[in-house]
Amino acid sequence: MAKALGLFSLGLGAPAAVIRVAGTENTAASRAVSRALGAREIASGVGVLGSRLPGRWLWGRVAGDAIDLSVLAIAALRHRDDPPRLLRQAITAGVVTGVTVVDVVAARRHAGGPSAGPTRARSSTTVRRTPDDLYRAWHDFEELPTFMYHLDSVRTSNGHSHWKAKGPAGGAVEWDAEIVEDRPGELIGWRSVGDADVRNAGTVRFVPAPGERGTEVHVELEYDVPAGAPGAAVAKLLGEEPGQQIADDLRRFKQLMETGEVVRSEGSPTGARSAVHLLDQRPARPLD
To answer: Region Disordered: what ranges (predicted)?
Structure first.
């Protein structure tokens, strides 16, 4: 697999061909960017093919994939009024995403790649409801997918819960969890148990806001990054990094508790903040 990816990198070193396939403008600036990206690909290919321990070079490919997706997202924003060109760029972004998954798999199979490690994420918001109201809503775990769009389902039984969530590149991750601290109206603490796909632990705290302006909701999460630092960078770009997800979840939780429903834009239904998902967004327009 590593040799195939090395040869693939060498093949991407031709800037003119990449410009034609990706649908970007054939300008001096785009040619300069393509030459720089092509030189990086050639260096990666030579490194992978010539090294006895290609793991680090493969992780370099993963980082390069993240750069490529960012460049494609910027190009798509510039060509949003050119549907044929935008379609080619969207297809190219899909291919690059698939290659990224293969790169991560290959890098993890070789020695010399970065090890997984714990990562912390946190976010907060203020909701105009009482701490008791918010505690009861959050404690109903099976209803969490109502505003946590990355969750597929949560099932509870005998004090434990089973979680199923969307993983990177359309995959799925599952884990069992238990409550480790539970103070009604104040705090819920949990941690994963057993052989979890992604080990995690966290807390959600409900603190009265100053001036009787509702309740501050603070979420803190600690989790193991499956593919180390490069995996975290790719997940963040793809909109699947927990820090991004927590912020979006809290925004929807606030809407749900204050208005009774989650407000969704027709032009950006998922509300993703990642660069690559900008390809799915468009100016909102009235329904027919």
So the answer is: 261-288
